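Hello forum,

I keep getting stuck at the same step: I have a sequence, I want structure tokens, and every attempt I make locally crashes halfway through. Rather than fight my setup again tonight, could one of you with a working pipeline run this one for me? It's a single chain of 471 residues.
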Amino acid sequence: MGSGSFTKETPMDAQRVPESSSQAHGAQIVIEEKSVNPSITNRQVLLRYQTQIFMLSWLVYAAYYFPRNAFSAAKVGILEEGVISRAGPGILDSVYLAAYAVGQFVWGAVAEKYGQRVVIAGGMVMAMVAAVLMGVIPALSLFLPLMIVQGLGQSTGWSALSKNMATFFTISKRGRAMGFFSTSYAFGGLVAVPVMGWVAYTLFDNWRWAFFTGAMVMLVVFLIFLVLQKNRPEDVGLPGIDEDPKKFDDDYVKGHAAAQARELEAPREKFRLSDLLAAARHDPMVLRLGIIYFMIKPARYAILLWGPVLVLDAVPGVDNMTAILVPVTFGLAGVIAPVVIGWISDTVFKARRMPPCVLSLLVLCVALALWQPAASLGSVWVIAVLLGVVGFTAYAADSMVSGVAAIDFGTSKHAAGAAGFINGCGSVGSILGGLLPGLMAATGVFYTFAGTALIAAVLLIPAWNRRPVAV
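Reply #2:
Ran it on my machine without issues. Output:
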């Protein structure tokens, strides 16, 4: 080769070739990407993946609510057939919620060790299979084991997807990011039952189609998830979200190979039972939030699982479809609430999560206590408005405790574990939300949950100014 050839290759030679094959591969990526777009920064790439991960996480968790709420949509038709007493669905809901609680404690810690993709994908498959089988089997007595499978599958979603948000968004932006993300479960709870109810009762006049519809929606989203999911910024060559912010101003390709090398060299730790409590040990506030969530989650689940039946109790004589549609106000308000409270916590209260939560719980207490006076009026519109108020305040407090505060106090390192632990505690409490409406009058149910909301508010007041250690 002549000297002219060497002269032309000098810029290429300036790129020092690493010795290892993995580093060499990274260097090749550097050269190729730099020649395509030499000006792109880590911050620009991070914004792209923040958008992708947010939209994907939102869609996935909204989809979880279709197989989750299929039994709620089918419940009206099942009770109408008279093949099971009213206490029967309450017992099945309780079994589901017990499995859901156990799964929350486990899957959050597992996601910390093995990544969100594995946990979420596995849970979606479990939920789909359980829903399809519940639509197929002829005997309702066989629902019991399938409700356990559904509960374990559903419990994979929140903690692992919260980890997605924690690893791609800084603490100063998590209030708003988690606020918008939390609308996913409000939206899912809002649209899932009416859509599945419409397909089941209007199109096919068969409650089993509620289960089939839920499984089909989940299948479509499952395929999208497999294509787009990324577990953390480092997996796409970016600095970690908690690293020096100045690194995000660097050229994206300069850190790409190094990040890949760190990923290849990082040892994978084995899962231990002690990991289940790692988040609570990291910050005692995680334990307090778990106790609070145990008290406030039952009210939301009582309406989520029994909404149409509670409407029939309050306004006898309405048809099944009307009873299904009235609780839509509960879900609509729930879509708005997390966004509002997330923005308020970030801006008005400067990343303090407890003040807006306490205020929401106090209003929730009053709204729940007004159920009996509202029901005595016999007006569908009054019930709809009251359910809207309950929905706004319940979802506001719920999203703050289980979402923003959970990953704030857990930090990005323990986000999935903290979200799993707190939601596990809440899910133990939500067993009452599934069980009590089948065992006692609606008035007693609402008064009970009004009392627990008040106790939760009182317990949070001492933490009014509490912030995560990382702030």
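The radius of gyration is 24 Å. If your local run keeps crashing, start a new thread with the error log.
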